[in-house]
Amino acid sequence: MRRIAIYPGTFDPITNGHMDVIRRAKKLFDKVLVAVAVSEDKRPMFDIETRVSMVQAAIKDIEGVDVEPFDGLLVSFSQEKNINVMIRGLRAVSDFEYELQMGYANSSLWKELETVYLMPSLEHAFISSSVVRSIFKHGGEVNHLIPHAIKPYLQKSSLCM
Question: Is the pTM value of this prediction over 0.85?
Answer without folding.
Answer: yes
